[in-house]
Amino acid sequence: MTQTHAGFVALIGEPNAGKSTLLNQMVGAKVSIVTHKVQTTRARIRGIAMYGDAQIVFVDTPGIFRPRRRLDRSMVKAAWGGAADADVILLLIEAHRGLTDGAKAIIEQLREHSGKTPVALVINKIDRVKADRLLALSQQVNEIYEFKATFMISAEKGYGCEDLLDWLAAEVPESPWLYPEDQVADLPMRMIAAEITREKLTLRLHEEIPYQLTVETEKWEEKKDGSARVDQIVYVARPGHKGIVLGKGGETIKAVGQAARAELAEFMGRPVHLFLQVKVRENWLDEAERYNEMGLDFKDGDA
After folding, report:
1. Is residue 79 part of a domain?
2. Rounded to whole angstroms, how far apart are CA atoms 246 and 249?
3. Does the annotation flag 279 for ligand binding?
4. Region G2: start and end of each range (predicted)?
Protein backbone atom coordinates (compact mmCIF):
# COMPACT_ATOMS: atom_id res chain seq x y z
CA MET A 1 0.00 0.00 0.00
CA THR A 2 1.30 3.45 -0.93
CA GLN A 3 2.34 5.56 2.06
CA THR A 4 0.50 8.86 2.16
CA HIS A 5 1.80 12.17 3.49
CA ALA A 6 -0.16 15.03 5.03
CA GLY A 7 0.68 18.16 6.94
CA PHE A 8 0.10 21.85 7.57
CA VAL A 9 2.08 24.56 5.78
CA ALA A 10 1.95 28.10 7.19
CA LEU A 11 2.31 31.03 4.80
CA ILE A 12 3.77 34.06 6.58
CA GLY A 13 5.03 37.41 5.41
CA GLU A 14 4.29 41.09 5.30
CA PRO A 15 0.82 42.28 4.23
CA ASN A 16 0.29 42.00 0.47
CA ALA A 17 3.29 39.70 -0.08
CA GLY A 18 1.10 37.36 -2.15
CA LYS A 19 0.19 34.72 0.43
CA SER A 20 -3.47 34.51 -0.58
CA THR A 21 -2.56 34.41 -4.29
CA LEU A 22 -0.11 31.56 -3.65
CA LEU A 23 -2.72 29.67 -1.61
CA ASN A 24 -5.25 29.94 -4.41
CA GLN A 25 -2.65 28.93 -7.03
CA MET A 26 -1.61 25.84 -5.06
CA VAL A 27 -5.14 24.70 -4.27
CA GLY A 28 -6.50 25.46 -7.73
CA ALA A 29 -9.61 27.12 -6.31
CA LYS A 30 -10.36 30.46 -4.77
CA VAL A 31 -10.44 29.98 -1.01
CA SER A 32 -8.76 33.15 0.22
CA ILE A 33 -9.63 36.66 -0.82
CA VAL A 34 -7.09 38.47 -2.97
CA THR A 35 -7.17 42.25 -3.34
CA HIS A 36 -4.86 45.18 -3.95
CA LYS A 37 -5.53 46.26 -0.38
CA VAL A 38 -3.13 45.13 2.32
CA GLN A 39 -4.37 43.24 5.33
CA THR A 40 -7.41 41.50 3.82
CA THR A 41 -6.93 38.03 5.30
CA ARG A 42 -8.43 38.03 8.76
CA ALA A 43 -9.05 34.40 9.63
CA ARG A 44 -6.57 31.56 9.29
CA ILE A 45 -7.94 30.13 6.06
CA ARG A 46 -6.97 26.57 5.25
CA GLY A 47 -6.74 25.54 1.62
CA ILE A 48 -6.05 21.93 0.74
CA ALA A 49 -3.85 20.82 -2.17
CA MET A 50 -3.74 17.19 -3.31
CA TYR A 51 -0.38 16.45 -4.90
CA GLY A 52 0.51 12.84 -5.70
CA ASP A 53 0.30 10.88 -2.45
CA ALA A 54 0.47 14.06 -0.35
CA GLN A 55 -2.25 16.24 1.10
CA ILE A 56 -0.82 19.69 1.78
CA VAL A 57 -2.97 21.90 4.00
CA PHE A 58 -2.09 25.58 3.65
CA VAL A 59 -2.73 27.98 6.50
CA ASP A 60 -2.98 31.50 5.08
CA THR A 61 -2.18 33.74 8.02
CA PRO A 62 -2.91 37.46 8.25
CA GLY A 63 0.02 39.57 7.10
CA ILE A 64 2.39 40.33 9.95
CA PHE A 65 2.74 44.04 10.65
CA ARG A 66 2.97 46.48 13.56
CA PRO A 67 -0.42 46.25 15.29
CA ARG A 68 -2.24 49.34 16.54
CA ARG A 69 -5.85 48.32 17.18
CA ARG A 70 -7.39 45.32 18.93
CA LEU A 71 -8.26 43.75 15.56
CA ASP A 72 -4.67 44.23 14.37
CA ARG A 73 -3.25 42.61 17.50
CA SER A 74 -5.60 39.62 17.19
CA MET A 75 -4.60 39.15 13.55
CA VAL A 76 -0.85 39.19 14.28
CA LYS A 77 -1.31 36.72 17.17
CA ALA A 78 -3.29 34.46 14.80
CA ALA A 79 -0.50 34.66 12.22
CA TRP A 80 2.15 33.44 14.66
CA GLY A 81 -0.25 30.85 16.04
CA GLY A 82 -0.63 29.47 12.51
CA ALA A 83 3.14 29.28 12.14
CA ALA A 84 3.64 27.56 15.50
CA ASP A 85 1.13 24.82 14.65
CA ALA A 86 2.57 24.05 11.20
CA ASP A 87 4.77 21.22 9.92
CA VAL A 88 6.47 23.58 7.45
CA ILE A 89 6.70 27.38 7.33
CA LEU A 90 7.01 29.37 4.11
CA LEU A 91 8.24 32.97 4.40
CA LEU A 92 7.13 35.05 1.41
CA ILE A 93 9.14 38.09 0.36
CA GLU A 94 8.32 40.29 -2.63
CA ALA A 95 11.18 40.33 -5.14
CA HIS A 96 10.77 43.98 -6.10
CA ARG A 97 10.59 45.21 -2.49
CA GLY A 98 13.57 43.19 -1.32
CA LEU A 99 14.61 42.73 2.30
CA THR A 100 12.48 45.39 3.97
CA ASP A 101 12.55 46.35 7.65
CA GLY A 102 9.26 44.47 8.01
CA ALA A 103 10.75 41.30 6.53
CA LYS A 104 13.78 41.60 8.82
CA ALA A 105 11.46 41.92 11.84
CA ILE A 106 9.57 38.77 10.77
CA ILE A 107 12.84 36.84 10.38
CA GLU A 108 13.84 37.91 13.90
CA GLN A 109 10.52 36.59 15.21
CA LEU A 110 11.01 33.36 13.24
CA ARG A 111 13.98 32.60 15.47
CA GLU A 112 11.58 32.61 18.44
CA HIS A 113 8.56 30.90 16.88
CA SER A 114 9.84 28.35 14.38
CA GLY A 115 11.66 25.99 16.77
CA LYS A 116 12.66 22.89 14.78
CA THR A 117 10.02 23.47 12.09
CA PRO A 118 11.62 23.62 8.61
CA VAL A 119 11.38 27.09 7.07
CA ALA A 120 11.68 27.78 3.34
CA LEU A 121 12.18 31.18 1.74
CA VAL A 122 9.80 31.94 -1.12
CA ILE A 123 10.70 34.99 -3.20
CA ASN A 124 7.49 35.98 -4.98
CA LYS A 125 6.71 38.24 -7.96
CA ILE A 126 9.99 37.31 -9.70
CA ASP A 127 8.61 38.56 -13.02
CA ARG A 128 9.08 42.11 -11.73
CA VAL A 129 12.89 42.06 -11.40
CA LYS A 130 15.96 40.88 -13.31
CA ALA A 131 17.75 37.60 -12.54
CA ASP A 132 20.92 39.13 -11.07
CA ARG A 133 18.87 41.11 -8.56
CA LEU A 134 16.97 37.95 -7.58
CA LEU A 135 20.17 36.03 -6.88
CA ALA A 136 21.56 38.91 -4.82
CA LEU A 137 18.35 39.08 -2.78
CA SER A 138 18.36 35.32 -2.19
CA GLN A 139 21.95 35.46 -0.96
CA GLN A 140 21.26 38.47 1.27
CA VAL A 141 18.25 36.86 3.00
CA ASN A 142 19.94 33.48 3.41
CA GLU A 143 22.87 35.18 5.14
CA ILE A 144 20.67 36.31 8.03
CA TYR A 145 18.61 33.12 8.46
CA GLU A 146 19.33 29.47 7.71
CA PHE A 147 16.46 28.50 5.41
CA LYS A 148 16.09 24.83 4.52
CA ALA A 149 15.33 25.72 0.90
CA THR A 150 14.78 28.77 -1.31
CA PHE A 151 12.21 29.06 -4.12
CA MET A 152 11.68 31.80 -6.68
CA ILE A 153 8.11 32.01 -7.93
CA SER A 154 5.35 34.09 -9.41
CA ALA A 155 2.24 33.06 -7.47
CA GLU A 156 0.03 34.99 -9.89
CA LYS A 157 1.42 33.34 -13.04
CA GLY A 158 2.26 29.97 -11.47
CA TYR A 159 6.00 30.10 -12.24
CA GLY A 160 7.99 27.86 -9.89
CA CYS A 161 4.93 26.67 -7.99
CA GLU A 162 5.27 23.03 -9.07
CA ASP A 163 8.84 22.86 -7.75
CA LEU A 164 7.57 24.22 -4.45
CA LEU A 165 4.78 21.63 -4.35
CA ASP A 166 7.29 18.85 -5.07
CA TRP A 167 9.39 19.94 -2.10
CA LEU A 168 6.41 20.35 0.24
CA ALA A 169 4.99 16.93 -0.68
CA ALA A 170 8.29 15.34 0.39
CA GLU A 171 8.62 17.55 3.47
CA VAL A 172 5.24 16.99 5.17
CA PRO A 173 5.21 13.92 7.45
CA GLU A 174 3.93 10.44 6.64
CA SER A 175 0.29 10.49 7.71
CA PRO A 176 -3.21 9.51 6.64
CA TRP A 177 -4.97 12.32 4.81
CA LEU A 178 -6.51 14.85 7.17
CA TYR A 179 -9.50 15.82 4.98
CA PRO A 180 -11.68 14.18 2.31
CA GLU A 181 -9.88 14.07 -1.06
CA ASP A 182 -12.36 16.40 -2.80
CA GLN A 183 -12.42 19.09 -0.10
CA VAL A 184 -10.59 22.34 -0.88
CA ALA A 185 -11.09 24.28 2.35
CA ASP A 186 -12.11 23.61 5.93
CA LEU A 187 -14.06 26.85 6.27
CA PRO A 188 -17.83 26.47 6.34
CA MET A 189 -19.53 27.76 3.19
CA ARG A 190 -21.21 30.51 5.23
CA MET A 191 -17.80 32.01 6.01
CA ILE A 192 -16.45 31.54 2.47
CA ALA A 193 -19.55 33.35 1.17
CA ALA A 194 -18.98 36.22 3.61
CA GLU A 195 -15.30 36.45 2.59
CA ILE A 196 -16.24 36.63 -1.10
CA THR A 197 -18.63 39.51 -0.44
CA ARG A 198 -16.03 41.29 1.72
CA GLU A 199 -13.50 40.98 -1.11
CA LYS A 200 -15.89 42.64 -3.54
CA LEU A 201 -16.50 45.48 -1.07
CA THR A 202 -12.75 45.91 -0.56
CA LEU A 203 -12.15 46.11 -4.31
CA ARG A 204 -14.98 48.58 -4.78
CA LEU A 205 -14.22 50.91 -1.89
CA HIS A 206 -10.84 52.61 -2.00
CA GLU A 207 -11.07 54.52 1.28
CA GLU A 208 -10.22 53.12 4.70
CA ILE A 209 -13.77 51.77 5.10
CA PRO A 210 -12.88 48.14 4.24
CA TYR A 211 -11.01 47.89 7.53
CA GLN A 212 -14.06 49.24 9.36
CA LEU A 213 -16.55 46.74 7.97
CA THR A 214 -17.28 43.06 8.27
CA VAL A 215 -19.71 40.71 6.50
CA GLU A 216 -21.72 37.98 8.19
CA THR A 217 -23.87 35.33 6.56
CA GLU A 218 -27.04 35.62 8.62
CA LYS A 219 -29.13 32.95 6.88
CA TRP A 220 -28.51 30.09 4.45
CA GLU A 221 -31.47 28.32 2.87
CA GLU A 222 -31.22 25.34 0.52
CA LYS A 223 -33.95 25.48 -2.14
CA LYS A 224 -35.75 22.49 -3.67
CA ASP A 225 -34.47 23.42 -7.15
CA GLY A 226 -30.86 22.97 -5.97
CA SER A 227 -30.13 26.67 -5.59
CA ALA A 228 -29.28 28.44 -2.34
CA ARG A 229 -30.64 31.64 -0.82
CA VAL A 230 -27.96 33.50 1.12
CA ASP A 231 -28.76 36.51 3.33
CA GLN A 232 -25.83 38.59 4.51
CA ILE A 233 -25.35 41.67 6.65
CA VAL A 234 -22.58 44.18 6.02
CA TYR A 235 -21.73 45.81 9.35
CA VAL A 236 -20.08 49.23 9.25
CA ALA A 237 -18.63 51.11 12.21
CA ARG A 238 -20.03 54.59 11.51
CA PRO A 239 -23.33 56.00 10.17
CA GLY A 240 -21.47 57.92 7.45
CA HIS A 241 -20.01 54.67 6.10
CA LYS A 242 -23.43 53.20 5.40
CA GLY A 243 -24.17 55.68 2.62
CA ILE A 244 -20.79 55.07 1.01
CA VAL A 245 -21.29 51.29 1.02
CA LEU A 246 -24.81 51.65 -0.40
CA GLY A 247 -23.73 54.18 -3.06
CA LYS A 248 -25.94 56.59 -4.95
CA GLY A 249 -29.34 54.98 -5.42
CA GLY A 250 -27.90 51.76 -3.98
CA GLU A 251 -25.64 51.25 -7.02
CA THR A 252 -22.51 50.26 -5.05
CA ILE A 253 -24.09 47.55 -2.93
CA LYS A 254 -26.00 46.30 -5.99
CA ALA A 255 -22.78 45.93 -8.00
CA VAL A 256 -21.06 44.25 -5.06
CA GLY A 257 -23.98 41.83 -4.70
CA GLN A 258 -23.93 40.93 -8.39
CA ALA A 259 -20.18 40.27 -8.38
CA ALA A 260 -20.28 38.26 -5.15
CA ARG A 261 -23.28 36.21 -6.31
CA ALA A 262 -21.60 35.34 -9.63
CA GLU A 263 -18.38 34.21 -7.92
CA LEU A 264 -20.19 32.25 -5.22
CA ALA A 265 -22.34 30.48 -7.84
CA GLU A 266 -19.20 29.56 -9.80
CA PHE A 267 -17.47 28.33 -6.64
CA MET A 268 -20.45 26.16 -5.64
CA GLY A 269 -21.38 25.08 -9.16
CA ARG A 270 -25.06 26.00 -8.74
CA PRO A 271 -27.36 29.05 -8.69
CA VAL A 272 -27.19 31.39 -5.70
CA HIS A 273 -29.68 34.10 -4.66
CA LEU A 274 -27.74 36.64 -2.59
CA PHE A 275 -29.40 39.36 -0.53
CA LEU A 276 -27.34 42.06 1.23
CA GLN A 277 -28.25 44.50 3.99
CA VAL A 278 -26.04 47.24 5.40
CA LYS A 279 -26.27 48.00 9.11
CA VAL A 280 -24.41 50.35 11.42
CA ARG A 281 -22.84 48.61 14.41
CA GLU A 282 -20.54 51.21 15.90
CA ASN A 283 -18.67 48.96 18.32
CA TRP A 284 -18.30 45.79 16.25
CA LEU A 285 -14.49 46.10 16.43
CA ASP A 286 -14.81 45.57 20.20
CA GLU A 287 -17.31 42.68 20.17
CA ALA A 288 -15.98 39.20 20.94
CA GLU A 289 -18.69 37.58 18.78
CA ARG A 290 -17.44 39.34 15.62
CA TYR A 291 -13.92 38.03 16.24
CA ASN A 292 -15.21 34.49 16.68
CA GLU A 293 -16.98 34.82 13.30
CA MET A 294 -13.61 35.70 11.72
CA GLY A 295 -11.79 32.81 13.39
CA LEU A 296 -9.82 35.18 15.65
CA ASP A 297 -9.42 35.21 19.43
CA PHE A 298 -10.84 38.39 20.97
CA LYS A 299 -8.44 38.12 23.96
CA ASP A 300 -5.43 38.15 21.63
CA GLY A 301 -6.24 41.80 20.94
CA ASP A 302 -5.61 42.88 24.53
CA ALA A 303 -2.83 45.43 24.63
Report:
1. yes
2. 8
3. no
4. 39-43
